[in-house]
């Protein structure tokens, strides 16, 4: 009978140790930051409690009777604080490996009077920076607000109930929650009632926004599809490819018409222009070989070619010149050949036009 009892005890111890190993993986490392202490303490106590050893931390007599479990807790705390600034607090009890005393050192360090005041100031500062705005959700705001207020309660530095409610409502800046805030002020709700009102408003807004989003998308898609179908039908019916052939023989379709062509018409235009371009290149017609393959640019290329055509260039301005001919036949065609006076008169008349006379020349 005794052997059966001892075997059951050994089996329970093995199960207990395996459970402790599993829960040890859930104890997160502690960096030593005072703002992280309360959340880490809460998680660690929960992990140790599920392993059935929470009484080790709170009862000295129980810890003395269960030395193995007490030592196990010490090693768990040592691993969790090894890389942080709180490692020296646990290492103070490395000789006796007393997990309960090591835990008490941590509590004393992070929950002392002086450090509690400094930590409470940091928590209040963080609490004042939490807002329910258009960029955040009510659920996130409520969760952070309650976390910080609970932290202040654990530090015995909490606000009064009326002050807490005032902070909670004043830091709701989202216009959609304006009626909710006014209702809470008017009815003088407590904090829990205000939180319920904010959550109910969030659910209503979620349903309304979801319904509006679906309706808007359906209406917009229907209108766009109907307009596109009507426009495409009208444009395709009015487009005749032969109406857009230029003088060079290429199809030159404007961009506002090109987008309404179906795939078969586009392929035909591209193929026709490509074949015509190759034929012109073979014939050595360099003027037509530079047409762009895209029909939208044919008009611009045709205009540029017309400007480059020397036949279309404006005539050059003619300069007026005065020539003196010494040919006696020309000089005396309208006068007598042997009349010197007549010759001299003609010369003087021509020179007077230019502003000088024979006298000036002689002088």
Topology:
Elements: H1 2-24, H2 37-50, H3 54-58, H4 60-65, H5 67-81, H6 87-91, H7 99-110, H8 113-128, H9 138-154, H10 161-170, H11 178-187, H12 191-238, H13 255-258, H14 263-282, H15 298-308, H16 328-331, H17 340-354, H18 358-362
Regions with little confidence, pLDDT below 50 for 5+ residues: 326-338, 357-363
Please, how many helices? 18
Q: Major β-sheet, in short?
A: none
Beta strand count: 0
Cα-atom Rg, whole angstroms?
51 Å
- Label the structural class: mainly alpha
Question: What is the overall shape?
Answer: elongated
Domain count = 3
Strand content: under 5%
**Portion of residues in helices?**
55-70%
- Termini distance? 164 Å
Calculate the mean pLDDT score and round it.
75
What's the helix-strand series? HHHHHHHHHHHHHHHHHH
Descriptive account of the structure:
The protein is an all-alpha fold. It folds into three domains: 2-111, no CATH class; 116-207; 244-310, no CATH class. The protein has 18 helices and no strands. The protein starts with a helix and ends with a helix.
